[in-house]
Design brief:
Blueprint: H1 16-28, E1 32-40, E2 45-53, E3 58-64, E4 67-74, E5 77-82, H2 84-89, E6 105-109, H3 118-121, H4 124-132, E7 139-147, E8 150-157, E9 160-165, E10 172-177, E11 182-190, H5 192-207, E12 220-225, E13 234-241, E14 250-260, E15 267-277, E16 283-289, H6 292-299, E17 307-315, H7 320-330
């Protein structure tokens, strides 16, 4: 006769470190999690809900200072979707791109501008590793208490306070770090369905980055080319340059417009193109304006005509290659 013996430990029999280890194990197997709370320091923080994949990619809508924005982090690339006020404030944008005058737009952010290091603080791996490194000497106090009407074990260490469910398989439900930058957030493990939804949401937002811009680069026109205009249309040609920073190349999207008689005159037409800056010299951007407004104005009356050419330039926040690489990486989640 074979006798099988099973031992089940409940949380009343487990030590604090055993509870933390069990909760870390359960979190490590999650496809994704949700963090809902406040992140950062007193001088630079955002509040809201972040969805985090097991691979460390995040997205969510947050309040950052006085701005309500959508943020996205994938493979060390940081992006936000906000209005001009946000990009002037948090994005340090100093340009005058007309497209920012309406609505919210995706743009790239420098990692140092973020209120908190995502990789080191806001991933399942980061949280799990910290919990696994805790020993009984790390624990300052523990108690059974309630959180949102539910019994929880509150375990306070020198670096953070962890709130765990009291069932046989403890789950982390809240974390409050005490060192800067701080985290005070509810934690919810996502199941397979919700986790797949989070990955799909991140994939979709990465796709939206095709229209993003990089506020750290301010492209400008170095010189204009003249001539070639007639009743059928007007070629607009300008040499465009921008700083590249650490990038080997920068894609600049160019929107040319023409106004009649003065800088603020009647709109006669526009066209768009793009150029890639790879060296220290500018690159010529060119497209042709053709419109009924231009033809009508050009043919009207006689004598000398004056028109103004304008250029609205933006450095792309993500190339097609960047977008493809980030989306393909999601397939490994």
């Amino acid at each position: 006769m074979v006798v099988l013996a099973f031992t089940v430990f409940n949380t009343n029999q487990m030590s604090d470190t055993e509870k933390l280890t069990a909760a870390a194990r359960n979190l490590s197997t999650a496809k994704a999690m949700t963090l809902n709370g406040t992140f950062g320091s007193a001088s630079n923080q955002f509040t809201g809900e972040l969805k985090v994949t097991s691979g460390g990619r995040q997205t969510g809508q947050v309040t950052w200072g006085s701005h309500r924005v959508t943020i996205l982090q994938a493979d060390g690339n940081f992006f936000a979707k906000g209005n001009r006020a946000f990009w002037t404030d948090k994005g340090r944008y100093t340009g005058d791109a007309e497209f920012l005058n309406t609505g919210e737009h995706w743009g790239r952010l420098e990692s140092f501008s973020m209120p908190i290091g995502f990789k080191d603080n806001l991933t399942t791996t980061a949280i799990v590793n910290r919990m696994r490194q805790l020993t009984r000497y790390s624990i300052r106090s523990s108690e059974r208490t309630t959180l949102k009407g539910e019994d929880v074990d509150k375990i306070t260490t020198f670096s953070a306070t962890y709130y765990l469910t009291t069932d046989d398989e403890p789950q982390l439900v809240r974390i409050e770090s005490t060192s800067s930058p701080t985290i005070s957030a509810d934690v919810k493990v996502q199941g397979s369905s919700d986790g797949a939804g989070t990955i799909s949401e991140i994939r979709s937002r990465i796709g939206e980055l095709k229209d993003s811009f990089d506020p750290t680069k301010n492209p400008r026109v170095q010189e204009w080319s003249k001539g070639g205009c007639n009743a059928s249309g007007c070629p607009v040609r300008a040499k465009v340059w921008t700083v590249r920073g650490s990038s080997s190349s920068v894609l600049v999207n160019v929107h040319f417009t023409i106004t009649a008689d003065t800088r603020t005159g009647r709109h006669l037409g526009d066209c768009t193109t793009s150029v890639t800056i790879t060296g220290i010299d500018g690159v010529w951007a060119e497209c042709r304006v053709t419109s009924s407004a231009w033809t009508s104005w050009f043919n009207a009356g006689s004598g000398t005509k004056t028109w103004w050419k304008h250029a609205d330039l933006t450095a792309a926040g993500a190339s097609e290659g960047d977008i493809t690489t980030m989306q393909n990486a999601l397939d490994r989640e």
